[in-house]
Structure formats: C-alpha cells, structure tokens
Amino acid sequence: MAVRLASIKTIFGIDLRTLALFRVLLSLWILIDLFMRARDLVAHYTDAGVMPRTVQMEHLHITTWSVHLANGSAWFQALLFILAGLVALALLVGWRTRLMTVLSWALLLSLQNRNTFILSGEDNLALILLFWAMFLPLGARYSIDAALSRSSNNPNNAYCTLATAALLLQGMSMYFFSAVLKTHPIWTQDGTAVFYALQLDYLVTPLSLWFRQFEGLLTGLTYYVYVLELVGPILIFSPLFHRTFRTLLMLAFITMHLAFALFLEIGFFPFISIIMNLTFMPGWMWDRLARLLPARTERPVAMWFDRGCDFCEKTCQILKVFLFLPAAPVRPAQDDAEIGAELEARNSWVLTVGDERLFKFEALSKLIAVSPLFFLLGKVLGFPLFRKPGDWFYDWVGRNRSSFSRVTALLLPWRESAPRFGVLTQVCAAAAFVFVTVQNVSTVPASGITLPAQFVGVRQALGLYQNWTMFAPHPEMTSPWPVVEGELADGTMVDVYNGRIGLADFDKPDVVSQHYENYRWRKFLSNLEDQSYEDEPQVLALNYARYLCRSWPADMKPSVALSNFVLYFQVERTPPPGEQKSVETRQVWLHDCLG
Fold first, then answer.
1. Do 142 and 112 share a structural domain?
2. Rounded Cα–Cα distance for residues 196 and 578 (Å)
3. Is 416 domain-assigned?
4. Is residue 595 exposed (0-12), middle (13-18) or buried (19+ Cβ within 10 Å)?
5. Which of 12-26, 395-409, 540-554 is most confident?
6. Is residue 532 part of a domain?
C-alpha cells in the first residue's frame, strides 16, 4: 500500500481557528504578565526602584528603545500598563486585530527594555511570538473583525504562507538549537543533567525536593529531553506519517512544559511555550472537537433585529460569532410581517427557536443556552432571579440605542475587505526568518559566525534576540539566596531582607525558592549575585541597596531610620551524585544608608 506524503501546505500551514486560539491565549498571557509585573511597579519600573532610568540606559544598546524610559514616575508607568492592558483586551476579542497586534508587540518590547535585569526566556519567546503574529490573520475567526466582515476572504480554514512557516519553524528552532548547545557530557554521556537541574534549590518546587530521590528516573528523563529537543523539531515537519508525528510530538512538548511547571519555578515560560506548541494544532482536531460538542437544540435558531439599527445588527453578528452559532441567520424583523409586528409591539429584538419566539433578556439567555460552548451560563441566566434586572438593562439599552448606534458606527464599522497579508508582508516575514536563523546559527560555537554591529543594531531595535541556552551547555551548579543583616540608627539589629526586627537568619530555608518574593525578584537578585564575581562596578548591588534604604518598613520603628546593612548571599554548590552539598557565605555589599 502506497504511503501518502503530506503536502507543503499541510506541513507549513496553520488552521485559521488555531490562529484564533493563538490570539486569545497570547492576549491572556499579556494580561497575566501585566498583572504580575504590576505588583512591583515601583520597585522595578520607576526611578525610586532598583533600576533608575539612568542606570538602565547605560546597559542598553544604542538602537534599543523604550517609551517606558520617558518618565520615571509611578503614575506614568501605571498609565502605560493600563494602555497595554486595554490593547491586549482589544486583541483578545479581535477588534482591529492587526493594529492591536502591532501595538501589543511595541508596548511589550518597550516594557521589557525598561528593566532588562528581570527578564528570562519567557519574555524573549513571548516577544518573538508577538512579532510573528503581526504577519498573520489572527482575526479571521472568532473575532469582532470577523463578525463585522462583509468579505468572503479566507472562506476555508486552511491557511499557508511564508509567515505561517516562519512561526512554526521559529518555535521548533528554540528546541533544536537548545539541544545543539547542550554540549556538556552530563547531557550526552552521564545522563545527570536533570539531576543537577533539580538540585538548584533556589529554582525548584517542593515537588522537586521529593522527586529528585529517583536518580535512575532522572537519568532517563535527561536523555528523553535531549532527544526530544534534538529530533522532535525535525520529525514534526515530516511528510511521512505527518498526522501521527505532529500529534504525538506536539503532545510530548506540551507535557514536557507541564512537567517544567510542576518542578521548576521559572515563571510563565512553560505556559508561553505551550501557546507556541498549540500553533501546530491541525484543522482535523478542530473538526473532531466540533463533532464532540453536542447540539443544544435540533430546532432552527434565528436572530431578528430592527432594520436601520446599526447597533442592533452588529450586536447580533457579534453574538453569533462568539457563541459559536455559525448557522444562525441574522435578519431584519421587517422581512417577516408577523415578527416585525411583535418587535414593534414589544420594543424588543426577537429570537426564534423553531416556532418559539423569545424577547428581551429571556431571548439573550436562551441564545446563550443553545451555544455549544457557553450553554451552562445560559442556563444560569435563565433563572427567574435574573429576569427582572436583565429586562431593565435591556430596556435601558433600547432607550439609548440611537446613541449606541453612533458609537458602533464609529468604533465598529463594517469591514468591506479583510486585512491583506500579501506579497510585501510575506517578503518581510521571510527576511525576518532568515535574520533570526543566521542569529541562531551564530550561537553555535562551531559556526565561527560573528554578527556585525549593524546586524546587532537591527536585532536590538526589533527585539529579535535568539540564544536558547535553557540549561545549556549544562545546568547551573550553584544555588544562591540572599541574606541582608542591618542596623537601625538606634543600634537595633534588623533582618532587612524580610523586613523584621532581630538578627538575620543564615540557615537554609526549608524551600529556598519560596525565599524569593517572586520569579522577577529571583532573576534580579541572581543577576546581582552573578555580577558580584566581576571586576566591573557593582551597579545592581548599589541600586538595590539604595532601594532597601528607601523602602525599609516605616511601621517597624517609624522614627528610626535604617542606618547600615550587609548584603550576603548563601551559595550552595551542587556536587556530583552521592556527595554532600556545601554552603559558602559570600559578603557582596556593605552599605551606609545615612551617607
């Protein structure tokens, strides 16, 4: 029996429904990332924090830019955070999708350049995914743009361009080049890399503290991760047995990242990686899922609006898209004399489900109840408890629908043609892919490639940094945690790091990773500890010390200032399997807050 080969379009294409999922998940990641960062808005993004603008700008390439560096005040940073959140919400629902994608990318790049000492691989990958998203029709399905489109562009879900190929190849290049850079014998010969990774107490979760006793299993996992990263990116594009390989490898990469989330405190890197892997979700999976969703009614469903009401028609079209009811027609009530008369009499839109006619809020709850995905919400809204306030809200909207129509005409215009992703877009995507591939190859020492200054300048301006050194060439061999012991102006000893009266505790915490406030602080303090080994000025230590002086809790002794303190790091070194760990106390910085 002949073996069928997958076509180029199948291998390098992305289903439009998958691109819609990519848009939704990427938007949610941006919103979550903004929320998590906002907890340390003053500490990490203002001149009163650990990274004043003058210090950060000294560490940026000349072509690096950031709107966030325009002002060092908390209110200015808060405004940019809110703006980024609003843009992400617009991207989530697919309103002016292409513009919102560009703005989200620009605002994220600006935010990351405001404080580069708290960044990790998660930030790099997310920024690159947003970059490739600008070349793709993320709003072609399940979006406000799609709901208001009068164009029949992209009638099929299959979509293949140079940009889809670039996104898929970029995702797999992260794994492939990470594997190529894993050159140490603990990966390729000893099989102890996962053992060493789970010995990094400042990174591991409590589950890892228990799991690392199974050394034989850790050896198997080392080889599994190495082979998956090296071979998986090739087989996932195989034209032979394409459906099988793609499904199995996509699930293998996703489960690997779920394991990372369980065992390592590495922020949201596992989740942004899962979002990247889901771009490989083929169309047949969506078709299978659609068949699994049961129909909530066998009767025909239709929405009837008042002709001439711009707001009414657009609302029905948006409901049709977001409630996953593609077969439900949206019609002017005046097309049916009987329904038109009822609309006038009841001053309400009309929902017909078979011969049943529903009005006002009851119609909305019933429409949601017949949605294959949101039916439970519809059943809840159908409770009598919600009927009266729902009808009141509907009547209020009805009284003001002329005003709403003016707003929708301005903000939600009909789209006569879909955004074009034509030749120029594809040429730019192809050029960008060549650009990042050259950079990826240059990270391999054997390549001998040195990037020219102009190349680096473009890379920094666009945020296209590529260097996938996840535990490469080997995991770290030291695990640090900070201890800050200080003295108030009246001689009282204080634990500055934990903000409490008394001597600092140099003993190892039960769970070292929880000694850090969050993963952004862990990244900053580990960078600070790394910099303390260098001969150059200890800029991070100095500015962290100044921040501690300013932020010493006033509720401890309001009238007594923090006088001086010493910043130590307890550094635990990981020995080979079977040997005991050792801890070294390193004094990194001595600071006098009073000048």
1. yes
2. 12
3. no
4. exposed
5. 12-26
6. yes
In this structure, the answer to whether residues 228 and 326 fall within a common structural domain is no
Q: How large is the angle between the packed helices 97-114 and 121-133, nearest 10 degrees?
A: 150
Whole-prediction pTM: 0.94
Q: Using CA atoms, how far apart are residues 281 and 18, in angstroms rounded to an integer?
A: 6
- Of the pLDDT bands very low, low, confident and very high (cuts 50, 70, 90), residue 418 is confident
- Which pLDDT belongs to residue 374? 92
| Burial of residue 482 (number of CB atoms within 10 Å: 0-12, 13-18, 19+) | buried
Query: Above pLDDT 90, what percent of the chain?
Result: 86
Alpha-helical (H) ranges within 264-309 are 269-277, 283-292
Q: Tell me the two tokens of residue 175.
A: 């794994």
- CA-nearest of 458, 457, 464, 462 to 106 is 462
pLDDT digits (tens, 9 = 90+) for 18-76: 999 999 999 999 999 999 999 999 999 999 999 999 999 999 999 999 999 999 999 99
81 located within any domain: yes
- 80 touches 68 (CB < 8 A): yes
* Helical axes 384-399 vs 401-411, angle rounded to 10°: 80
Segments forming the whole domain that contains residue 107: 8-285+422-462
Which SS3 state, helix, strand or coil, does residue 100 take?
A: helix
Q: Collapsing DSSP states into helix, strand and coil, what is residue 233?
A: helix
